[in-house]
Write a structure and sequence with these properties.
137 residues; alpha+beta; 3-stranded antiparallel sheet; 2 helices; 25% strand; Rv3655c/TadE; membrane; transmembrane; TadE family protein; transmembrane helix
């Protein structure tokens, strides 16, 4: 006697649902980690830009408060700036917290550093104003 069509595969009923229920949390966790990594990469790029801008300002002799404001504007309000001058060089370290995929229970601190020579007063890098731009005319 042939088997009834409705009874074939009856023991596998709901297997796909169970497999999805087991795999779905792992997929969600992996997605959270990937997004956290992307957030960290973007934050690191912003910190690099902020450190470069701040060290240029301090190298030109601008106040540290102004350089810190520039760093916060580029890297975010939570960014911190530490600056030092030694032997004619200016060094800057900008740090910021990166939020993790699970809120306050995760995350890490990233930092970027930049160093530039401090300009001496009256030795700007641009052309002498009395000599023109160097173009014929």
């Amino acid at each position: 006697m042939p088997a009834r069509l409705g009874s074939i595969g009856r023991s596998d009923r709901g297997a796909a649902t169970a497999e999805v229920a087991v795999v779905l949390p792992a997929v969600v966790a992996l997605l959270g980690l990937l997004l956290a990594g992307a957030t960290g990469a973007v934050t690191q790029l912003q910190l690099e830009k902020a450190a470069q801008a701040a060290v240029r300002q301090l190298g030109r002799g601008e106040p540290e408060g102004q350089a810190a404001a520039t760093a916060r504007r580029i890297a975010g309000e939570g960014a911190g700036l530490a600056a030092a001058t030694s032997g004619g060089w200016v060094s800057v370290r900008v740090t910021a917290q990166v939020p993790g995929p699970w809120g306050p229970w995760s995350g890490w601190t990233l930092a970027a550093e930049a160093t530039a020579p401090a300009e001496q007063p009256g030795t700007g890098a641009g052309p002498d104003p009395g000599t023109g731009s160097g173009h014929g005319g």
